[in-house]
Design goal:
The complex is a heterodimer of chains A (116) and B (115). Chain A is an all-beta fold and 116 residues long. Chain A contains no helices and twelve strands. In chain A, the strands form three sheets. In chain A, strands 2, 5, 6, 10, 11 and 12 form a six-stranded mixed beta sheet that branches. By secondary structure, chain B is an all-beta fold. Chain B has no helices and eleven strands. In chain B, a hairpin with a 2-residue loop joins strand 5 and strand 6. Classes of the chains: A mainly beta (116), B mainly beta (115).
Chain lengths: 116, 115
């Protein structure tokens, strides 16, 4: 069965702190994709990153970085030097290749609050 | 490039009524997926349409249905509304071609309140 777990429901940090959002997934498929999406108060989910199951390279994009470890089935997201604009709900999601892409399994989300 | 457009943005219905929500995907995208978001259940997949055919389906009762038109626009319908159907309904589009990596582009959603 496919499942995505984001154990942290809410995180509150002060601006400029680093913060890591955890994501653990379950799947029986060997080919799958992992995602992080950001949901600001407006409601629209904004795509942040995609990793496929064959690419365990970590990625850095500005203040954002992602750590994908198949051995622990984790795909964690770190924001360095957080800013107030980072406040949002962040979702980790899984897509299995056999579903041809339209079906994402989402975690419950982590609400990040960055205080000035 | 225009994004995913959902209408209406907000609506209020009463129990037993039915509702139809509309989604216009990004131009050129042939896949449209629907998701229900509630505080208790989070984001749950409803169904996906590709080239007017339902390609994937989630675990929702038959009261939830959808369709896709030849121009890729999609509608979803919920009949015999229940209080628990109150939610944000999100539509997402993607090119839908193989290999499909699953990157979806979401609309702002239709917020349904059932009284």
């Amino acid at each position: 069965a496919q499942k995505v777990t984001q154990a942290q429901t809410e995180i509150s940090v002060v601006e400029k702190e680093d913060v890591t959002l955890d994501c653990v997934y379950e799947t029986r498929d060997t080919t799958y994709y992992l995602f992080w999406y950001k949901q600001p108060p407006s409601g629209e989910l904004v795509f942040l990153i995609r990793r496929n199951s064959f690419d365990e390279q970590n990625e850095i994009s500005g203040r954002y970085s992602w750590n994908f470890q198949k051995s622990t089935s984790s795909f964690n997201f770190t924001i360095t030097a957080s800013q107030v604009v980072d406040s949002a709900v962040y979702f980790c999601a899984l897509s299995e290749a056999r579903n041809q892409g339209g079906k994402l399994i989402f975690g419950q989300g982590t609400e990040l609050s960055v205080k000035p | 490039k225009a994004g995913v457009t959902q209408t209406p943005r907000y609506l209020i219905k009463t129990r037993g009524q039915q509702v139809t929500l509309s989604c216009s995907p990004i131009s050129g995208h042939r896949s449209v997926s629907w998701y229900q978001q509630t505080p208790g259940q989070g984001l749950q997949f409803l169904f996906e349409y590709f080239s007017e055919t339902q390609r994937n389906k989630g675990n929702f009762p038959g009261r939830f249905s959808g369709r896709q038109f030849s121009n890729s626009r999609s509608e979803m319908n919920v009949s015999t509304l229940e209080l628990g159907d109150s939610a944000l309904y999100l539509c997402a589009s993607s090119p839908g071609n193989r290999p499909n990596t699953g990157e979806l582009f979401f609309g702002e959603g239709s917020r349904l309140t059932v009284l």
